[in-house]
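Troubleshooting: if your tokenizer reports a length mismatch, compare your output against this known-good record of 239 residues.
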Amino acid sequence: MRSARGSVRGSRRSDEGDAVEQASATRIRREPRRIPWYISIPVTFAVIVALFLAAAKFDWLPGLPNPFATSTVDRSQPAVLQSIENMSDYDAATGNFQIVVDLDQEANYLPSALLGNDTLYVAAGTVQSYVDLGKATVTVSADRRSATLVLPPAQLGQTALNPKQSYVFAQNRGLFNRIGDFFSGNPDDQQKLLVLAAQKIQTAATASGLTQRAEQNTQLMLTGLLRSLGFTSVTVTYK
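Known-good structure output:
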């Protein structure tokens, strides 16, 4: 009898132990893990800030100010007049040019993926061709019917680049170049492109026959002007 009672009590205790373990396991599963306050507060703040920036960026709330908005302030100093020159040049022809500058700067011992700069720059500019009328020699006949003009040959002005039509079309930079540009800008690269583009346009203007067109236009202009003044014979020559 005692052994039977002992076995019954042992079985009851084992059943009670199993029930307690199951209840505790169920409670553990039901109770979620709590995030520590020193982690939840920064995370919540970051989420609020991200929602605020997204709402301002994508205009979800029209009345909300945009933190990405920028304003331009012009603090340039007024222009200072340095000199005034009296000009006697007659701009007789203008050439409009466009060129694509392909400037490739390669390293001697490193691959271009690490060190190098390959830039395609589209440049647009104009070149004026003029005749200096201040150096003209004019001979008029006694009856004021004939006039002979001797002019200096036409010349080319300096290339004037158009910043609105000039731009960088493509640029491939090495890893070291990008790192260097991140910490400090390099205006020398832009200056090299501008100088090279101006030189190439100037060379193209020299070979384009722009000066010949300027001399023809100047001759037509002077001939028409003098004929309107009563001259019947007008001769224009260039030294």
